[in-house]
Amino acid sequence: MRWIQEAWTRLRALFDRSRVERELDEELAFHLEREAEKLEARGMSPEEARREAHIRFGGVERFKERTREAWGIRWLEDLADDVRFALRQLRRNPAFSAVAGLTLALGIAGTAAIFSVVQGLLLRPLPYERADRVVVFWSQLNWRGQEYDHVRERTTAFEELAAYGLDGVSLRTGSSTSLAISSLVTANMFDALGAELLLGRTFREGEDRPGAEDVAVLSHRLWQSEFGGEPGIVGRRVTLNGIPTTVVGVMPPDFFFPVPEIGLWRPLDLDPADPGYANNGWLSLVGRLEDRIGDARIRAELDRITTALGERFSYPERWDKTRGAHLIPIRDVLLGDVEAPLVLLLGAVGALLLMACVNVASLMLARMSDRREEVAVRSALGAGRGRLARQLLTETAVLGLVAGAVGAAAAALSFDALLAVLPLQGPYGFGDGYARILSLDWSLAGGALALAVGTGVVVGLAPLRRLGGARPAEDLSRSRGSGGGGGGGRLQSAFVAAEVVLAVILVAGAALLARSVAELQAVDLGMEPDGVLAVDLFVGEGDMPAEERLHFFRETAREAAALPSVQQAALITRLPIRDRGWQGSVRIADRPELSGERAPNSYWRVVTPDYFQAMGIRVLRGRGFTAEDRLDAPDVAVVNQAFVDAMWPEGTDALGKRIRSLAAGGTSGEWATVVGVAEDTRVVGLRGPVPPVLYRPYDQLATTNLNTVLVLTSSGDPLTLAGPVRALVRRRSPAVAVARITSLVQVVESAMAESLR
Fold first, then answer.
1. Distance between terminal CA atoms of the chain?
2. DSSP secondary structure string, 192-219?
3. Rounded Cα gap, residues 653 and 642, in angstroms
4. What's the whole-model pTM score?
């Protein structure tokens, strides 16, 4: 076939040029020789015959050029010549090349890196089948087990409706224990999401019911990090919370739910005989809508479900879960908090890249004035405007590609550092967030290449206008005179105006950001974060009896206090600023008990006696806790000033008052006497008013706590204590996991970044 022959000829001419040229020379020589032989046969001498043969044949070089053009690769040769010329121009002007190249490289690096993140999160499809049909049934409060069963039995809008919740489990591998983020799910959760497994199977019907075998499905990340990607992991028994559990499946690398940090999934045991089935609201609901159901039917179904829930459970007004209940697309639940900041950031770095292009285009315009004579000579020698434009665009494209290579390298080297500062927290706002599932891939290189070519073309368009009115004679005379010219004045003025506009926009945004940062830095934390280390300790439910846990945490704090540079050691159940923790309604003695929306609420924290001193929290009135506040002593409490203002707005002294919280009422639900008032500290984040907080002594309430934060105050860099603390915990008990170690300064910085989103 002719096209195959033509393609083969072009490939040979491109990749085996020397042989093809040699064959062309041999063929031409053959034809000349045959023609000379014919002329000799007519009586010419050999010299005359060869001369006449050349005359009749025409110019050999012209014939070669036509033959090369017939090969169809002439444009590649011209392009190669243009590229070589462009590289020579860059070498001849190193100062210009360095300034222009680095300017573009900085813009390309930032834009390519942010685009890679945007592509990995926002442009890549979610790892669920027909993800547009997957929704979360949202309520202002989490659902209870009996509410889920009630909805599932009555809905007709969902193909599948599943329940899930988050918790942590201790994972013991060899002699070490780590914390894994786990999701307890109903057996149909993977069907609701439309998930496919990498290995094994998902949960079977009945494995989420009482008495079923303990099984788990691992995330790909946990399978790789803890088990080295062992192919035979399915069927192996691992220890979770001290309980042997059989691994039945492994999910693909791109799958995550409900948070990117997820490590494994376990069946959710919804036992109607368990008191928590009717009382504990901690579940979320996710479902897959029927394909043929429209928006009108969805709204009608939602109204019917919420009405049935209200009739069945008779919610108090304050806790009415049907009020505002609605369906949220799964994409909005998972990515809603990160989408707007990332798009805004992409726009900002895009503006910086555009400013870089304008700067380099201005440099190119100025440089064109110096090259007017060169362009005029080339034009006088026959180069058309198209040829000149191609050469100029090739120069700017080469500059863009060089800058793109530098920018891509810079983006790759700074990618991990970028992930550490980007607002990539997941739906529940803990851990590394989406940084955990992002990695360098070809999208960064592809984005950098596209940006490099695009910027090269954009930069070349400005000086291209100078060619539009090129007059060789006039330009040659100017080059011999002043060498100046005002033809590009208006264009350069437009560039200056564009740069000013972009600069004003970016400076205004930076000023607003700086003001927000200044406001956050001025927030009174109510504590001293410098020199404080927070160590999250986790014990699985089956790893250690309750009394043994209490003794372990207390003794660990005592031994940690003896480490070099440690000044104070204390324990708390929820770290301020970072951990929201529990809330409970408060009852005050000698007052009528209030219910519904009128019932006062407070956060609560359980702490050891040294906590207030270790954190630099002042006790304003009364006293803090002491070693005498044990389980067999009268129940006592310390409250913050916001608690006093909320419960006794008339200014009554809180000391000596007896209070009780449903979330922290002591092991026997006894009343606690207020013995101290502490200054307000930030509870969750850095914005908004400080809520009421109720503190209780660790020895009176800690027997049921599975996770505790060890707080250490150091005279030096607190992070240097991380190694010794890990060794201490491992020596005292391999069953206890060090879930996280961070300085309080890092906690504050993270909260500040979260507040700026």
1. 62
2. HHT---SEE--PPTTTTSTTPPPEEEE-
3. 13
4. 0.75
